[in-house]
Fold each of these.
Amino acid sequence: MTDIAWLYQNGQGVAQDHAEAMKWFQKAAATGFTPGMITFGGFYGNGSGGRGGSVVTQDSAEARRWYQSRGSPQTQQA
C-alpha cells in the first residue's frame, strides 16, 4: 500500500495527488505497517500532505498517536 501511496505522493506514473497518497498511507497505517504509521503521523506532525501539498492541519496529538502506536502488540501482526 505504501508503494501506491508514494506513486501518488511523487506523481510517478499517475497524476500527483497528495490527498490520494494520504488515503493509501492511512490504509497502510491502519494495518499496523510501521512505515505507513510513521509517514501518516508525519502528515499530522507537519500539517501537510507531504511535499508541497497541504491536506491536513497540523495536529501534534494525532501525530503522536500514530508515532506511539507503532510497535505496539496489536500492530505486530500486520
Amino acid sequence: MSAERGRFEGSLVVPRELTGVPLDRFLANSFPELDRASHRCLMREGRVHVDGSPWTVARPLRRNAVVTVQRDHDAPVH
C-alpha cells in the first residue's frame, strides 16, 4: 500500500480481528489521515473494491477479503 505525499492506493487483506467491521471503519483504521466521510465518498465514486467488486456501501467485511483503494492526491475527496 502506497501512502506517499497524500496519495494512497493498493490492496489490504482483512485480518481475523477486523472480520465483520464495516468497510468505512476498516478504511478509517487503515488510513487515519482521512475521516470516515471521505472514505464513504471514495466508495461512492467506485474507488474502493472488495475482492474485485466495487462496494458503494459500508457492509461488514469477511476475513481475508482483499480491499483495494485508489485515490489521487489531486482528486478532491468530498
Amino acid sequence: MSLSLSLTVMSVTLQNAATTTSLQGSIMGGTKLYFQGLGFSTTMDENVIYIGDYPCILEDGATATAMVCRTTPPDQYQ
C-alpha cells in the first residue's frame, strides 16, 4: 500500500493576521509562525515542520487549513 499526501502552504506570517511588517525572528528560537494552507492533518503528530535543520514545535492545535509552531534554538538540537 502506498500513501500519498499533498499539501499547499499559502502563507507564513509572524502574527495571526494577513499582513506583517517583519519576517524576522530571534536566532535564540521562540518565534511563533502561523501557517495557512490546504491539506494539513488535523492530528498534530502527523504534521512536522522544520526551519532549516531545526524543528518548529506545533502549538495551539491544527486544522486542515492552519497550523502554528514555535521555533527552537539551534543549540538545542546539535
Amino acid sequence: MAILLSFLLTLPAYAQNQVSGTVNGKDGTPLEGATITVKNKKIYTVSDRTGKFVIAANSDDVLVITTVGYNPFEIKVG
C-alpha cells in the first residue's frame, strides 16, 4: 500500500526549516499516528488525527514516513 504525502517547505533553503505536511492513505484518508523521521538523524514527529505534522528539516534532507499497514515511504524535502 502506498502512502501519499503533501508537504510545504517554509523559510529559506540551506537552513533548518519547519516542514509541514499531511500523511494520507492511498484512498486519501488522513493517517493518524504515522511516524515522520528525518533520515539518518534523531529528529522525528508523529502525525495528528488529521494526518498533519510539522518537523524541523533541511532542504536536502529526506523524510521517512512509516505507519502500520503500509510500506515505508521516503521523500526528499527540497
